[in-house]
Every structure is written in C-alpha cells, then in structure tokens.
Amino acid sequence: MRSICETFKPQLPTWKNPSRDFSVSLRRSKSQQTTFGVSEDSYAYHHARQRRAANVTRKVELREQRAVALGDPIRGVTTPFVESLDSPIRSEATTTDEALANTTTTSSPDKPPPSPATAADEDQLNYYFTKPEFEESLEYSRVLSEPLVSTERERADPAREAEVAKMHEVDHETASEAISRIISLANANNKERTRANVQRIIETFGRHNTDTYFKPKAPSLQSTYSTIAEQKPTPRAGPDTGSSEVQIGILTAKIRVLADRYEGANRNDKVNKRNLRLLLHRRQKLLKYMHKKERGSQRWTNMVEQLGLTEATWKGQIEVK
To answer: For 231, which DSSP code?
Structure first.
C-alpha cells in the first residue's frame, strides 16, 4: 500500500520544448524516407553504394602508391654503391658456399685451401692498405727471400738449386695467401669495415675531389646584387670530412649496420633502436638543410643517386617500428 504522503504528493507540471519535438519528428521522418526509399528507387541507392566503395578502394590505392613513391625512410633504394658498403668483395669475385662445396681440391700441407675472401678479390683492403702497395710489398718480399745463387758454378748442384727455387716459390705463395687473408675486409670485424667505408665515402663525396668535376652552384640574387666584396674560400688543409654530403654518407653507412643488427632476433634491443632513431633524425636534418641549399645541383643529384635516398628520408615523420 502507498503511504498517505505518496498519495497526496503534489504533481509538478513538466514543460516540453516544442522545437525539440519537431526536430526529433523531422529526423524520424527522414530516416523513414531513407529506409523505405530503397524499395522505391533501388537503382539510385545501389549506384551510390557502388560509387562509395570505388572511392574507398581508390583512396587505399593512392595511399599505397604514395608510400611506395616515398620509399623506405631507413634504407631507401638499394644501389650498387650501397651494396658495396655491405660487402667489400666485388659481386663477380664472390664465391658461394655451394661453389666451394662442388670444387674438388687436393689437400697439400704446403698449399693452403682456397678462401672465398682474399685481398686479390677486393677493391679496398684493411689496415689502410692499397692494392698497388700490397702488390709492391709482395714482390719486394719475394726478391728479398730468394735463395742465393753460388758464384762457383763448378761446385754448384743444378738439381739442388732447382729444388730450392721450387720450395721458395711454394713458400712465397703460402705467405702471400696468408697475408691476403689477414688484410682482407671480408675477414675483418664490423668496426674495421665501417672505418673502411668511411674512408671510401670521404673519397667519393668529399669536395676536395668533387670540386674538380662538379659545376659550382649558381649564385643567388642576394649575392648578385650585394655590395660586399666576395671573399675567397679558405684552401683546404686535407680531405673534406665535414661537408653535408660526406656526413650524410657516413650516417647512411652506420644506419645500414644498425638496421641489419636490429632486424631478426634483435627486435627487442632498445638501446640499438634508440641509436638508430638518433642517426635517422640526424641524417634527416642534414638532408633538409642540403635540400634547401643544394637542391637541383649536381652535388645533390649525385649524392641521392649514389646513396639511394628517397623523399621519405627527409620528409615527414620517421618511425622505427
């Protein structure tokens, strides 16, 4: 039973907004029209849905095409120069494991087995060696270690001399093979390979070499109409190591090393991921600066083509996932 207070409780009048009721009824009528309009004009309804599906599909295709056009912000496009940074041995001189397994070699204690990584197959050697220096040193050591020929030919034994000369040649070949493997970059560690790649990049993109065959950039309008006398550039005291293109090339070589390290089983290496992100953003800043200063010049075009850099390396946000 209700209590006496609830029974005689005064009922307060409720106020309704007529405009709200009108808008609600209008929305209901529109929804009813669209619901029942399918049966009335089904052709227009299905044509609109088909057009919308085509637009959504086209948006997805355009988004994928733009992503492909921008390229990979970490590696860019693979070029022969970038591939040479990863492997110091030329592609035509490399020997695969299958080729080594198929070759039948005779075991000899005097001659070492064939090696897929020798200094004769490389364009650049370890420990700051060059190929002419290496060949000259081998020839000089062969001359120094040649057996002496007896001046008294009456007492000399030709058979013995021929045997000693043959042993000398075998020993020289063995020593040459051992030295070739020691100074080979294929047998070097990652740090020594990076150092050799840095030297190559300095010689390739350094302005002490590129200034001789690249045309200078056209002067700007501000420098053309300036009343201040143009100062002569300070002569270089050594190889160029501080220009933007050299620093971008060095960062690209280091980024590829860290990217190879980060892939695969090392995806949880947080320190490596942070270092990779720092190098990517540092290269992005240098690319933006050089794109502003050297855009369209031969120096910019040569650097982008050699290193395989795309617009994704300096445009937009770079994420390391």
So the answer is: P
Strand partners, 41: none
Distance CA 296, CA 61 (A): 30
pLDDT beyond 80 at 282:
yes
* Amino acid, res. 69: A
Q: For the chain, how far is it from start to end, CA to CA, in angstroms?
A: 69
Show Cβ contacts of residue 319 under 8 Å, excluding neighbours closer than 6 positions. 73
Q: Are 318 and 285 in contact (CB under 8 A)?
A: no
Q: Over the Cα atoms of the chain, what is R_g?
A: 37
d(CA 121, CA 183): 12
Sequential DSSP letters for 48-98: HHHHHHHHHHHHHHHHHHHHHHH--TTT-S--HHHHHHH-SB-GGG---HH
Higher-confidence residue: 63 or 228? Answer: 63
Token digits of residue 308: 């395989």
Identify the sign of the CA torsion 248, 250, 253, 259: negative
Q: Is 234 helix (H, G, I), strand (E, B) or coil?
A: coil
